[in-house]
Amino acid sequence: MQASLKKSLYLGLAALSFVAAGAAATTTASAKSYATVKTNTTLTTAATDRNVNLTGTNAIYTKAGTVKGAKIVAPTTTAKKLNKSTNGSANFRAYRVATTNRGSVYYKVVSFDGSYRGWVYGGKSTSKFAGGVASYDTTKTATAPSSSAVYTLKSSAVSTTSNTAFYAQPAWAEYKIGRAKVNGVTLTSTSAYKDTQFTFSDAVTNRAGDTFYKIATAPGATDLVGQWVAASAVTSPSDFNASTQVKINITTTDGTSVASFNYTPTTATGEGTAVDLSSDSALSTKADDAATAAGYKLKTSDNVNQAALKAATIGGTVTLYATKSDQVSMNTTVYIAQSGSVTPVKATTTSDASVTKPSDAENVIVTPTTAFTPFTGAEGATYTAADALAYLNGNSTLKTLYSPKFQDTNASGTTTWYEYVYTPQSASAGTYDASESVQAVYTATKTATTAPTGTTTTGTATGALDN
What we know:
The structure is a single chain. By secondary structure, this protein is α+β, with helices and mostly antiparallel strands. The protein folds into four domains: 100 residues, no CATH class; 96 residues, SH3 type barrels (Roll); 80 residues, no CATH class; 121 residues, no CATH class. 15% of the residues lie in helices and 32% in strands. It contains five helices and 33 strands. The strands form nine sheets. Strands 1, 2, 3, 4, 5, 6, 7 and 8 form an eight-stranded antiparallel sheet that branches. Strands 23, 24, 29, 30, 31 and 33 form a six-stranded mixed sheet that branches. It has a five-stranded antiparallel sheet with strand order 9-14-15-16-11, with no helix packed on it. A hairpin with a 7-residue loop joins strand 23 and strand 24. The protein is flat and about 90 Å long. The termini are far apart.
């Protein structure tokens, strides 16, 4: 009995030893089973060629999924939902590629809204996307309006505080490319374009099914040409109602098209009904505004225009004639925003090359003597703040102005020559008028400089400033 028991215990311990040894071997093998990254490089192909969609077959990890320490960022259940999403934020951009010692390829991707970022299995070849990612066109071709069809912003899209209409690229079409930019500044209002007449050259729909039109022409707002507008933000005055409206075409005597719109009289309805519009003040204002916005002058009181307006009929077309507005030039009034100052101060000008103390140089501009190109436009036409700021930044004389030089003590206690360097910060919108000037605010920066070579500047003032 005891011999039998001893034998059983011996066999049991032997079996346990075998199992333990096997477990240890398994643990060792598991530790050695992690993949290692052999290459990890930045993708350099065109950004649009790296737009991808998750396929839903693989999760997103903090690092290549088979590498030790990889954690899940988004499981396959989430990846599947993103694959089927109709929201543009579910588009992804691939920007790095890694390969492992097992021959697997992983792509580092980021969702267009930045919510998900990590590595996803991409197959066995770096020459094409596979596995958990697939190449993806973020837009699809749509039918564009006729190239001659004229559109304007809907009233609901006109705002002084927001821009939901204009985009540099259609919404969610490209990673980190959103609202339209004018002179490098993101457009944050649309009120300046409330009367602009647009034509379009292309159309696409995005992942959400929203349609966008590419702007081909925009008289008076050429800064928007080539950018995109949401189709839902524009309406076509070309959608003519022959039972209630009269089509108004504004042109020049040489046949140049200036503007067109549909007008709804309040005094008559029914196609073919005669309607005298010669004294309709609302029409006169609308026609004048449309011509002015395009840089032309229109007088509905002219004999030719009066005759056409008197002969108008519902459902018919009236042609009004405009002339090119006179071109006027404007100079600039500068206000200085000193560091710590709440309200910009109107600058004064001087021909003095230097002053005795720093305070004498504050808000003072050495009068420019170099030739400059004035701010020019059609008399009566409006310009935006962005138009004016772009002019200042692009003008070799006005993009940088200077104060008289002065001496002051630097941080090391050494007396040094300084000057204030003034650069454009902002400008106001306005109307082209030869009796007015561009209103601009400049930022002042105290800058070390060289000693002056004389007591006054040389040259003759060119009239660049109205200070």
